[in-house]
Amino acid sequence: MKDSGVHGQQRAFENRLNVLLGRLLSGELGIRATSEYISRRDRPDIVIYVNGVKIVVEGSYSKTDAESDVKQKIEKGLGDLGVALLYREVFPQNLTESELEERLKSTTFEVKFVIPEDISDTLLKFFTGRKIEPRWVTGWIEAGVQDLVSIINEAIQFITSEKDINQTVNEIEEKINDFVMTMKSVDEKKLLAKKLYELLYKLYGLSVGDYKKIDELIYAKTALTILLSATFYQSVRAEIDLEELSELCQKNGYRLGLRKAFEAIYEVDYKPIYDLAIQVVEALPDTLSQALKKLVELAEECSSKRTLLRRDFAGKVYHKIVGDWAIRKNFATYFTTVPAAYLLAYLSVFTRTGVFANFREVKVGD
Fold this sequence. Notes:
Strand content: 5-15%
Oligomer: single chain
Mean pLDDT: 77
Order of helices and strands: EEHEEEHEHEEEHHHHHHHHHHH
Number of strands: 9
Largest sheet: 7 strands, mixed
């Protein structure tokens, strides 16, 4: 039986609209979406997969039905994010599929979002028998198809799993290990290691060992300096009207392209960050072009994952990479243990020669 609309006009089945909406999300907007043709118990109307996150959409002509259906799906662990969607426009049943698609593209829905209580901050696995409490995170809001995609993309940034983050860190570790091995092969006499050592340590008043013995640590920190600087550049460059990093590298080569990018953002701000990065890139030979290309590609991938940038991602990567190399070389300093942190803080604050001796000029950063 068809739904009844106003003035006796027959409305298109909700399932028919759901299938077409799934097709729009999948085909035209680049989101992989699947939808079902008939209502089935324990099956959502539309399932959208974005970066491994599962979103269920329950479309209906009734707000009450849409809310109830999507809430049940979330309670049963069938999705990581739920969307109740109201078709508030009358879609005549006698329209063709292409005509209905055009109407869906231009219409305005009302949508309401719900999440499992357990993943309000991070996405956790659902254990068998575990009770999941749905929590509404918005009221009803108006949204078109394009708006819906934007909202979903923003929402999933907050529910990316720790597993995904760890996978990214492991990928970074692998690429940096490759960079270290490449550096060793082109720097047999350790001349580059010496130059980078002077940039990374001695210019800042630190003498931390024989550069010939800790060359791998120096190479790893070099790669990390470039990677994190490139990631930050790519994540903010659109806001300050700077050129795409990949475009700069394609036009100028990877070493020169990185230098131009870092010099451009240096002129805007962030001088403490990019002063060292520029010197490091300048010290590298052009023969490392392929190794730098891999770091640039990795930086672009990291910058596209906003969840990583909203957390202490840089700190996690730094301690993982530099810490591992330091331990391998019996070079761990353990500055970040609690007793060491307490000692450093005490010396900084309460001694005449500490950084707080002239506290008005102090800038604190993590």
